[in-house]
Amino acid sequence: MTTPPPGLRERKKQATREALREAALRLAVERGPDQVRVEDIAEAAGVSPRTYNNYFASREQAIVSAVTAGREARIAAAVAARPIGVHLADAVTEAVVEQYTNTGEREQQALLLITTRTALRDAFLDTTADIEHPLTAVIAERLGDTGAHTARVLAASVAAAVRIALEGWLRPAGNAEAAESFGAGGLVVPSGSLPDQLRAALAPLAPAFDAAERRTQP
């Protein structure tokens, strides 16, 4: 079924959200995240602080949104686009790895900021929960009507695994000084390969995905 295009009101809301996250990232890069107020972001985007609060609960959410916007929908769409012959576990893993590692210049700027501030890292990690709803829908479609509950459990497990992988990737180097810096919002050196971390975190879910698929076979 083809999804109808968004109406004028929805397009205006999308444009406002885009303007706010672009302004948040630009100001954070120019001034440093700690020197940016919600009022500054709202003014740069041409809206009121009250309007800002309708879209984001904090400046950290707006900055992080510059790298995470639409990612959960793209993951679900990538899974749906995989051929039926591809194992669901493989489809989910490759979709997650692709969407978390193929970043442009803007996303790289945001990630650099995220690794240097505890509040930004926390906001970034919290966005993994957004994967659950759209992924539940696409997994349920793949498994059929009898797989609705299983789809939700699997999608929630994927979101948790992605968060664990990102936490491991963002942790500081293994020494006391670095750990103290992490807690204080200092520079964090990402640990190892993010694709490898994601695949390792998702690998334990493969048997559950395979079992769910087997139950749908005639």
Outline the structure in words.
By secondary structure, the protein is an all-alpha fold. Helices cover 71% and strands 0% of the residues. It is built from 13 helices and no strands. Helix 1 packs across helix 4, helix 5 (71-81) runs antiparallel to helix 6 and helix 5 (71-81) runs parallel beside helix 9. The longest helix has 24 residues, at 8-31.
Provide tags for this entry:
single chain, 218 residues, mainly alpha, globular
Task: Please outline the helices and strands.
Layout lengths: L7 H24 L6 H8 L3 H5 L5 H10 L2 H11 L6 H14 L3 H10 L3 H9 L5 H12 L4 H23 L5 H8 L10 H9 L3 H11 L2
Give the class from helix and strand content and strand pairing. Answer: mainly alpha
Tell me the quaternary state.
single chain
Overall mean pLDDT score? Answer: 86
**Low-confidence blocks of residues:** 173-187
The number of distinct β-strands equals 0
Q: Name the shape in a single word.
A: globular
Radius of gyration over all CA atoms, rounded: 19 Å
Structure described in brief:
With 218 residues, the chain is mostly helical. It contains 13 helices and no strands. It is globular and about 60 Å long.
